[in-house]
Amino acid sequence: MMLVTFTAVGRQHWGVTAPGGVLALSDAFPQWRTLRNVIEAGAIPQVLGTAKGRPASHPEGSFTYAPPIPDPEKIICVGVNFPDRNAEYRDGQDAPPNMSLFIRFPRSFTGHGQPLIRPPESPQLDYEGEIAVVIGKGGRRIPEAQALTHITALTLCNEGTIRDWVRHAKFNVTQGKNWDASGALGPGLVPFTDPAQITDVALTTRVNGETRQHDRTSRMLFPVARQIAYISTFTTLVPGDIIVTGTPTGAGARFDPPVWLKPGDVIEVEAEGIGILRNGVADERTGA
Predict the structure, then answer these.
(1) Which end of the chain has fewer CB atoms at under 10 Å, N or C?
(2) Facing residues of 77 across strands?
(3) Phi and psi for 20 in degrees, rounded to 5?
């Protein structure tokens, strides 16, 4: 059972997955407008208990998935976090002592089953399969030994990127990482109850059925606990914040010649115990 956010008949709901569809629960808990509010209240166990054994309210085909948390305060992404990924840069440098970070806006993500949008300004839409952790217990200067206790859920991310736009300036990648609906989060939130859910998990990205990325979280240069400790040193983490934890080698930019995503492609990001995030690709519709 995953916690999900979805839209049906023009209205957004939150709820859980159920056999054959999803079960809306937002009307039963009007005090919590979004799943971020559920997390802030520490109410995931209550919500799951209420849903147990109940049938779907919305069958497959009657709704569309949205990013599970539509209104996070922060989405912080970790770059170059696998050994082979560092080697891809071919700059002769060892992995740095501290992690590379950048910010994404909520609007840059769409939900499971929805297309990633390729803008007319560039054909260089690329994929990056990742695991994302959701903060349940906030804090500042969180000790690494306690960091995993601050996670409430896991989800998947396709951290779609417009490659030529990450090189428009010398030191930042913001422009290439924040095109509307260029990435995806979902399908839903898997409650986090055991460190084993993140410490050594297989992560795979497929494009049209072909495996393009594959690695394990145990090989991360900066494990998730260290990410939380480091990030919380300079900013207060709050419930509902999302940390996108890094992608393995094998993105389309690293092929010779590069292989960019195009309409008709299907990208699947899969991780053990979390599920599969699946998206197509569409061109942005502009002006009449």
Answers:
(1) C
(2) 102, 244
(3) 85, 5
